[in-house]
Amino acid sequence: MTDVPHVPVARRLLANRMFLATCVACTGLAVCVLAVLIVSIMMDGVHRLSPDFIANFASRKPDQAGIRAPLVGSIWVCTICALTALPVGVGTAIFLEEFAKRGRLTEFIRINISNLSGVPSIVYGIIGLTAFSRFFGWRAGAEPIELGSPESLLYIRLPFGSSVLAGGLTLALVVLPIVIVASQEAIRAVPNSLRQGALALGSTRWQMVWRLTLPSSLPMVMTGAILAMSRAIGEAAPILVLGAPLMVLETPANLMSEFTVLPMQIFNWAGRAKASFQEIAAAAIIVQLAVLMSFNALAILVRQRLQKPLQ
């Protein structure tokens, strides 16, 4: 048995303080860089904000350009993404943590879900292009199958093509691993004693999950949902792979409508040489930050309303 070398208390305290100081310095540096970026964007774009900038469509003339189409498209895509990814992700986490048998297969699935969180978003764009836009080449060259009236909100055309529905489902693939991992951690944080007490009182496993585990883990689940939607609203690469146009002169009318999103419009304007386009790109960034903060505030409000004490 080897002896553990003795480290003086003063040296350990010094090492702890140095590590804490390093962490605080790195955090402060990141916050300062973020503050400089936000201030720079505000200075460049705040004078471009106006009701006309929100109401107008994109234009080749900077003074007449607006973000109506990409703003509405971003709201459509993020809504479809949330309605798809959140129920599927939370349901998958509940099944893996509460109902699936412990074994190699379950552990293999958990590891792969964790690994999917680090896959580049453009890979999901390729998957969305193949699975949703083209349906794996199904009916290639043939007339698409239409379900419902083109004037209806729920009009469906198979395959989906470069539609707002394909964009929302593709972004759902991007954020789904984040939702699953965050929901798993939230469910694990619920004490086992509460589960055992509920089962001992005669509750079924589903009643225990629905009335105890899920309400208790909901704050952390909503936190993961906020992080996931924050990533979804800023993604441009998957939408670009789907073939969404950079300039759209109408807002989506149904699930099969063409669309564009704010990150793509910002990318388009920021790549132009004129300083006026740089300014409206900064103004669009401000609007996107406002939309992101609004979504986050709504999610936090829902989390606070649905939160229940463990008692």
Descriptive report:
This protein has 311 residues and is mainly alpha-helical. It has eleven helices and two strands; from the N terminus they run H-H-H-H-H-E-E-H-H-H-H-H-H. Strands 1-2 form a two-stranded antiparallel sheet. The protein is globular and about 70 Å long. The mean pLDDT is 86.
Features:
311 residues, mainly alpha, MetI-like fold, 2 domains, two-stranded antiparallel sheet, 2% strand
The portion of residues forming beta strands comes to under 5%
Largest sheet: 2 strands, antiparallel
| SS summary, helix count | 11
CATH topology of the largest domain: MetI-like fold
Summarize the structure in short.
The chain is mainly alpha-helical. Helix content is 67%, strand content 2%. The radius of gyration is 24 Å and the shape is globular.
Which helices and strands occur, and which strands form pairs?
Elements: H1 9-45, H2 51-55, H3 68-99, H4 104-116, H5 121-133, E1 145-147, E2 156-158, H6 164-188, H7 192-200, H8 205-233, H9 237-241, H10 262-270, H11 275-306
Antiparallel strand pairs: 1-2
Helix pairs in contact: 1-11, 3-6, 3-8, 3-10, 4-6, 5-6, 6-8, 7-8, 8-11, 10-11
